[in-house]
Description:
single chain, mainly beta, Tumor Necrosis Factor Receptor, subunit A, domain 2, three-stranded antiparallel sheet, two-stranded antiparallel ribbon, 1 helix, rod-shaped, disordered C terminus
Amino acid sequence: MTLAAASLAGLFVEAQVRLAAAQACAAGKYLSSAICTDCAAGKFSAAEGATVASTCENCLAGTYSAAGASVCTNCAAGKFFGSSGQTNDVCTSCVAGTYSAAGASVCTNCAAGKFFGSSGQTSDVCTSCVAGTYSGSPAQTSIVACTGCGAGKYSAAGASVCTDCVAGKYKTAAGVNTACDDCAADTYMASTGASACTNCPTGKYQNVVGQVNCKITPGNPACVRIQNNTVGWNEISGCNYGTYDSSQTVSVNGVTCAKTLWISDSSVQCKI
């Protein structure tokens, strides 16, 4: 055998050895100088029979690995790590007001309208602010962050903002407002977010609560409303609610209503 032939034979044998070794390298390893070598800590390789170190990839943020890993290990739920290529478990607990599932690179904030007071929380079990209060910022840690709604507003549980009372309703004071109140009869409110309702003007009335306007009083609108807490409409013979009768007269608080009168709740309407 010539020298050249011997050299070629040697290279062939070496190639076969390397190929056999490569086929034998398990996931998490690669062939180096005919030896299966571990991927470095902080890296992994799922491939079997790898022949180059570049097969080993960095573990993603939120995971880590020791040397020779075929997969990276997730940071536990309630923890996170923000960098890739991490070599061991130095994952950090999520702070109060946040949480995470396993393998997190960042923790998730409790939503606005919620809070949680302990660190290392593993899922969204953040506590809602109670109805009538709100919290406008995420990642809150205490119920102290939940603030009562202002006058003219209300909220359901877990609110990030309070909602305006609808037209026809009101809420007088700030506080734990879970609902708004109807405007009373003979009052109205056309706008939202009201802290009080407006009395119907002279010549108008409203016999239904929670209304956005008043009705025109039957008959001549040039009239005066006399408040009366003792005589109700049903006590005046022949006068039906919301109607008038020109033949009726009645004396109320020293004022005699003549020719035309009509009744609205406990008020008597008199023609001037």
